[in-house]
From TrEMBL:
Identification of the protein by name: TRAP transporter small permease subunit
Single GO molecular function: transmembrane transporter activity
Source superkingdom: Bacteria
Domain Tripartite ATP-independent periplasmic transporters DctQ component intervals: 26-154
Length: 167
């Protein structure tokens, strides 16, 4: 199990690095595009590349956010319940998240296949590279959610996440 945990921790670091690279890429592409447009030589491909990076940054970033924090939580309301009720609500909420993510995968895969013939306007790559972020990111968030459910079930405490927490 330690080898699997180590591999997952490495994956988490790679994922976080990718999110940072995508964000920085978007900033560079949009800024460069604006500068070059101002001087009369627009970089039309930069907008498409930004859209591609944005799609992946959103879904990978959502997985990172789910791992580090309680992404969706109404704490003021939640804390008024007894501990056992909090546990039940928390686990129910995680199951609902799993169901929603499952629907994103179920609809995202056909969308990716359908988008395979569509190309970005200025690049010769398929738009399915952008739409693939939906099912891939959703599967990654499902893994994160299952880890949270298992951890909560085995420790009988609701994990609050935290900086650096991976698994």
């Amino acid at each position: 199990m330690t080898g699997m945990k180590k591999a997952y921790e490495t994956f988490c670091k790679v994922e976080e690095t990718l999110v940072k690279v995508f964000l920085m890429g978007i900033v560079v592409f949009v800024f460069s595009s604006a500068i070059f447009r101002t001087i009369g030589s627009p970089l039309n491909w930069a907008v498409d590349m930004s859209m591609l990076f944005f799609a992946w940054m959103v879904f990978l970033g959502a997985d990172v956010a789910m791992r580090h924090t309680e992404l969706v939580n109404v704490d003021l309301f939640f804390r008024r319940f007894p501990d056992k009720a909090q546990m039940g609500i928390y686990l129910l909420w995680q199951v609902l998240i799993l169901a929603f993510l499952g629907m994103l995968v179920a609809y995202g895969v056909p969308l990716t296949i359908e988008s395979s013939k569509r190309l970005f306007q200025t690049m010769t790559i398929s738009y399915s590279w952008a739409t693939l972020s939906v099912p891939v990111g959703s599967v990654l968030m499902m893994v994160t959610t299952v880890i949270k459910i298992v951890r909560t079930w085995t420790t009988k405490t609701i994990g609050r996440g935290g900086a650096g927490e991976c698994c």
